[in-house]
Design a protein that fits this description.
It contains 5 helices and 20 strands. With 438 residues, it is mostly beta strands.
């Protein structure tokens, strides 16, 4: 029973993340197109996320809106269990908005208010592929998670070459989980979970103009835990207790809570203009997964639920992740005053070991290619980006210590994004490039 429930649970939660960890890798359309190498040069609405010091590079008051679409493609094969499952190809649209303005009291102070979704994904498995896990019946296997980051940020300039900034983040998360369960008496039943919660964190950063054509940047975000609270429903819970001689008072639902945290993150890099029209960025970004994704624990309010899940060790998910560093590279070439071409590449190593690998939080070594363009129409800017995350297949053997998922794990992701920015009363709009701090 324990092994069986583990397989069910981990299959269901496969959409908790985008790429490695519970976060989008490159929020912001321009950032996506440049491979997320954006800490040293960020100068748009995504500054509160990447480096709040970048607010000083924004000229004039701006309002930005962007949409990002994700196409996750996950697979899992296990010959022993007779599983050859793949997710349905469904796009997930994620909206974002930001408002940046200069402080009217002090000209060297810029403020920003942003609404950015740094984590969000929805994946649905084909229920027919998983009939062997749900009593031969087909059920809904779906999971959705959306995390909204509300940021209030500020930046100031010191000594003409140094920008510093700080951002206060409020995080709201919403999660839905559905899966099929086998009935010991035959057939199956639908399991579901609904939960949401809040969390808070702080970010800070700096940018320094080493030379006229060389800029250094560094940024940090604190660990940001979110406690998800909601209700779980399992129609089979009373049946489990019948085997123990308890036939009355066992509910099919229970309130619960589970904490999922975004790790301490540090990024640093350099942005160079070897010629006026070309921008090159190289960065390293480190995530402290070891202090965040070690063990995820669910606590159930109902004593029957709590006793059963604890006894089966199903209240815990052991991940044992280790700290990892991403290397990112980005480039932008200005064709003229209106058009920019962008591209990027980054390596995203898997933080999780084979001994704890499941489809709950799929992680693998990614090689990522990105590209896009920007078009300026005076006060109106358009940006477009595409990103393809090519994941390396992982072949996992069963662990003697932890409940992992032996078999073949695969994950590829395609991302597209479009952004529209309007600049209010910016005197530089006649030349277009002034608004982007170029």
């Amino acid at each position: 029973m324990k092994k069986f429930l583990t397989v069910l649970f981990v299959l269901l939660l496969s959409s908790f993340v985008f790429a490695n960890g519970v976060s989008l890798n490159s929020p912001g359309t321009r950032a996506i197109s440049m491979g997320g190498a954006y800490v040293a040069h960020v100068n748009d609405y995504s500054a509160p996320y990447w480096n709040p010091a970048g607010l000083m590079n924004v000229h004039g008051t701006q309002a930005s809106f962007f949409l990002t679409e994700l196409f996750p493609m996950a697979t899992y094969e296990n010959e022993i269990e007779g599983i050859d499952a793949k997710t349905k190809m469904k796009p997930i649209t994620i909206p974002n908005a930001a408002f940046l303005w200069k402080c009217m009291v002090y000209k060297k102070l810029h403020l920003g208010l942003s609404f950015i979704i740094p984590a969000g994904l929805a994946v649905e498995w084909d229920g027919d592929d998983l009939k062997s896990l749900s009593g031969g019946e087909s059920f809904t296997w779906e999971s959705r998670i959306t995390v909204v980051n509300f940021s209030l940020s500020a930046a100031m300039r010191f000594y003409k070459r140094l920008n510093v900034g700080i951002a206060f983040h409020g995080i709201y998360g919403d999660m839905t989980l559905k899966k099929g369960l086998p009935n010991p008496l035959g057939g199956g039943a639908q399991f579901s979970e609904e939960s949401d919660g809040w969390g808070f964190g702080i970010g800070a950063g700096a940018q320094y103009d080493l030379y006229d054509n060389v800029k250094l940047g560094a940024s940090i975000r604190t660990r940001m835990p979110v406690t998800f609270k909601g209700e779980a429903e399992n129609p089979l819970m009373p049946i489990y207790y019948e085997y123990m001689g308890i036939t009355d008072g066992v509910p099919t639902t229970s309130d619960f809570e589970r904490e999922i945290a975004w790790p301490l993150w540090i990024g640093c890099g350099v942005a160079v203009r070897p010629i006026d029209k070309l921008l090159l960025c190289v960065e390293a970004q480190w995530s402290q997964w070891s202090e965040t994704q070690d063990v995820l624990t669910a606590e159930y309010d109902d004593p029957y639920w709590d006793s059963f899940m604890t006894s089966q060790n199903e209240d815990k998910m052991y991940l044992k992740w280790i700290d990892k560093t991403q290397m990112r590279f980005g480039a932008e070439y200005s064709l003229n005053k209106k058009w920019d071409l962008r591209c990027g590449y980054y390596l995203d190593p898997a933080p999780g070991p084979d001994k704890t690998l499941t489809t709950t939080i799929p992680n693998t070594d990614f090689s990522v290619l990105t590209g896009g363009f920007g078009y300026c129409m005076g006060r109106l800017n358009f940006d477009f980006a595409m990103e393809y995350l090519l994941g390396q297949n992982r072949y996992v053997e069963e662990s003697d210590t932890y409940d992992n998922m032996p078999g073949k794990h695969g994950l590829n992701i395609f991302v597209s994004s479009i952004a529209v920015t309007y600049k209010f009363g910016c005197k530089s709009c006649k030349s277009c490039k002034g608004c982007q701090g170029k």
